[in-house]
Amino acid sequence: FFRIAPMYYLAAVLYFIIATPPSGFDVRQLLASFLFVNTWYPTWTPTTEGWTVVPGGWSIGVEFTFYLLFPLIAFLVRSRRGVILFCAFAVAAGSLANPIARDILIDRYGKVATDNFLYFWFPNQLIVFALGTILYRILTFTWTHPDTLLPRLARRYATPILLGCVAACIVTTHVPLPERMPPALLVVVPRFVAASLIFMVFATTLGNAPRNLFNNRPIRLLGKVSFSAYLLHFAVLQQATAMLPSIFNPHATGWTAIGTCLALWLFTIPTTFVLSFATYRWVEEPMIAVGRRFTFGRGRLAVAAPSIP
Question: Does the structure show a pLDDT above 80 at 163?
């Protein structure tokens, strides 16, 4: 909380300044976003038009919903069988909840808004967190059994596996896959699930092969400031295209569009990194320290309490 919330609130102020809501200030939308419940109801997550407090903020809301349920999940999912049951439950929950909710919401909010909301909301995204429990067990096993087949393959073929994962992610953007649960024909997984499975392979390889193409100082630094980068890169893209339309022309076509995309990419990454590094040092790190003092302070008090007469 102490890392995410302060930076998230600061980003909300930033986006309110640089992109004043065209429909006006909405207290309900602001509170839903600040309380991280903005993916619990269609009108709290603008899916067609309206004020988005922080672009991409829906994923933060889903993440906090997971944190809310994490103690229960950690208590119940403590074995291989528990992980399998959790994944089965996640598939069933999304597959059942989405069609039911769609029938309820579509007449009131329309097809586009309803379909977008059902992609964002937690029952649809639950499978991603369930797959995360599988990834956790895979990594803990490979780290404690480094001489088994999987970690040995990861170390030996790290670069081709990692590059293959990147290529596979690109391919998924062009393959006609479903956008949400349930799986089509029970075997064709939604696009975001396919991306999650690819990421599991990527993370497993990365975690077992210290020396690889993607393990270097610049990428590690970018990973350290990744939360700020996620929040701020929308602003960088928006301001770059607004202030320099002749260079970053969003309406370019053909080869010009490719050149524009490359130029925007080369501008956005370093600019976002510099801004994110600053907010990480001046916002995230101090607030993380506050959170640690609060948490560890409570722990010390709890230990010392029995000795007080």
Answer: yes
CA 225 to chain centre: 14
List % helix, strand, coil for the chain (3-state, nearest 5).
Answer: 75, 0, 25
* CB distance 126 to 94 below 8 Å: yes
**What are the C-alpha distances in Å from 118 to residues 31, 98, 108, 210, 251?**
21, 6, 14, 38, 30
pLDDT of residue 187 exceeding 70: no
Separation CA 207–CA 128 (nearest Å) = 19
Q: Residue 298 has which token pair?
A: 């409570």
Contacts of 252 (CB under 8 A, 6+ apart): 259, 260
For the record, the structure tokens of 127 come out as 């499978």
Q: Cis peptide before 309, with omega less than 30 degrees from 0?
A: no
In this predicted structure, what is the pLDDT of residue 186?
Answer: 60
| Count of C-beta atoms within a 10 Å radius of residue 88 | 11
CA 116/CA 180 separation, integer angstroms: 9
